């Protein structure tokens, strides 16, 4: 085979060869191939030179295969048919039998509400499908998608290149989590602004600093006792303490489920809604596995996210 490659064998020549063998003449083959007669003749000469043996002889007004040509036709025809079928066939995907590994870029706020339900659906409908969850946020998601570090991502995003497709999942605001055994608030009532800023807070900061969404939106500095990198630590830290935590509505539900002693109340100001988006590279838009996964995520977002309307 290496010797064949050294001869610079163009596989398109084999297609021309098969059509000429089936047609019996260069003229008929040229019509089927949408080529000129000189182009077909030149292709046959190139193939003959590459293989070092004649493939056709003149017979009447047409062409007849030599012994070498008959052997080549028998060997090449099934492979060309298989290649044509592979190129034309739409890729198949069956979630029940797939063992593919998909890589999801998730903001940790999304990881909290999505992964448990996603894994439950995998167990039911796609038992062999596996998922790798990687952290992303608005500053890193573009590069993660561009380098294919992740197959798709769910986060709040800013401007992204046209090579990234996006779909809104839901828009959600923020609520305040607290422990009612340590913080005296009327159940269900909004906390007033003076009380809110008088308390100490735990925040999630991707920059590793003492600024959160409230500081960025209102320009007011809270009394921040603790800054963490993910929402997973918020529930355990708020429970049993006087700390307040301002978290997205989609995160509050799962935290309250795991920490039923906690309560949530509206913030004393408008926090501003942020669109959580499903993002994926345009080049993978037709991937049947990833299309199935995107549709599943859209369905779960509508069912799970309390702010999805």
**Strand content bin:** 15-25%
CATH topology of the largest domain: D-Maltodextrin-Binding Protein, domain 2
Q: What's the CATH C level of the largest domain?
A: Alpha Beta
Q: Major β-sheet, in short? A: 5 strands, mixed
**What is the strand tally?**
12
Number of helices: 12
Mean pLDDT across the residues is: 88
The CATH architecture of the largest domain comes to: 3-Layer(aba) Sandwich
User: What integer value in Å does the Rg equal?
Assistant: 32 Å
Shape label: rod-shaped
Contiguous runs where pLDDT drops below 50 for at least 5 residues: none
Q: Output the CATH homologous superfamily of the largest domain.
A: Periplasmic binding protein-like II
* Structural class label: alpha/beta
How far from one another are the termini?
60 Å
Element-level helix/strand string: HHHHEEHEHEHEEEHEHEHEHEEH
| Helical proportion, percent range | 40-55%
Number of domains: 3
Strand order of the largest sheet: 4-3-5-12-6
What is the gist of this entry?
The protein contains 12 helices and 12 strands. The chain has helices spanning 2-6, 11-23, 26-33, 37-51, 67-88, 108-125, 141-146, 193-198, 213-218, 234-238, 249-258, 288-304; strands at residues 56-59, 62-65, 101-106, 130-135, 152-155, 164-172, 174-178, 200-204, 223-228, 245-248, 263-266, 274-281.
